[in-house]
Amino acid sequence: MEQLNLSDIKGVESEGIDLEKWHKKPTKIENVEVIKVNSTFTPKDAQGEHIQQWVLKVSSGVLESIGEGEDKVDFKASELFNLIQDKDGNIKGFPKNERSNLMKFCKDLRIDVSKIENLQQLVEEIKGKDATIKAYEKEFDADGKTFTRTYLKFLY
């Protein structure tokens, strides 16, 4: 077994990324998909579990990465927009009210939603558009400590 002299081991700055530097920077939307996510705001099913929420997930390409191989972490801007579903969790449509976040986002992207007839058209219109990144901080508690993390979404 190899012996280590702990007094020879020096402190090293860990690898990290300042995500704030992406705030108000332009990016291209590379991925738009309809997925289901867990939600505490949806009705419960027969087993008492919340029904998953249908959302439109919009994301940029990879802005930066740290690590390598299976430890690699990619950073992207992304946003989830709730879609309209019935009480059983079946998707019914997307919000077209001008006050909805999705329509505010589309307005910022200069998409004429009056010409959009279905969700597939909306997906195709959003994909490839230029958007502006918004970096924001969010506090959370873990192990009795409060931490702040920076996240990237879109400015609209």
Structure commentary:
The chain has one domain (20-154). The strands form three sheets. It has a five-stranded antiparallel β-sheet with strand order 5-2-1-8-9. Strands 3-4 form a two-stranded antiparallel ribbon. The chain has a two-stranded antiparallel ribbon with strand order 6-7. The chain is mainly beta. The protein has two helices and nine strands; from the N terminus they run βββββββααββ.
Termini separation? 58 Å
Rg to the nearest angstrom?
21 Å
User: Describe the biggest sheet?
Assistant: 5 strands, antiparallel
Number of helices in the DSSP assignment:
2
Low-confidence stretches: none
Number of domains: 1
Outline: globular
Q: What is the percent of helical residues?
A: 10-25%
Strand order of the largest sheet: 5-2-1-8-9
| Mean of all residue-level pLDDT scores | 91
